[in-house]
Amino acid sequence: QSIGSSTYKALMVRVDKRFADRFMYLASYTLSKTYGYPIGGSITDAANPTSDIGPAGTDRRHMLVTSGSVLVPGGVQVGAVWTLRSKMPFGALAGLDLNGDGSVTDFVPGTSRNSFDLALVNAWRAQNRLGPIAASQFDSNRYNSLDARVSKAIQLGSKRKLELIAQVFNVFGTDNLLPPGSGGYVDNALSDAFGKILSAQPRQQGELAIRYAF
Using CA atoms, how far apart are residues 17 and 15, in angstroms rounded to an integer? Predict the structure, then answer.
């Protein structure tokens, strides 16, 4: 039977100014923790199921989202959303089938799900005649993106209007590396790329749109 379970705890603080005097803004901060057994998949080692207890792959401890909009002269609406998220955890897989179950999913000895000690990883690499990994080579999937939008509505009679929209995603071109499950961390401790993230989200994107409402 499934023993998958996950506990999510969070504290959210929010400040919200509704639209008045031609502008509005919203800021929210979340401090959270997601912990437990993996909901999907199978236990890594049936003889040691506690090794699968740990932070969820989607756990992000901190998240801050701010947004605002202002109506400037000429009926032009200017808005932006700035999103910041802290990094996600990852684990260290042994790269070998240690328990003989036919799956290469075992954790480095002494480590557990999404939690590891670099000294244990390097001891395991040395045992397999590989050089040590430096913590400085680890990538981070912290997320930082500012999205901006400019729009202008043109009234076409009493019930129709045309809206011109221009928006840019990730204005500053920040390198946001993809999270686990979407081309995430290299978690094989025997790989020289251990701790690297080999793919990223688009650096910048722009969009032009026309919206007709009737």
Answer: 7
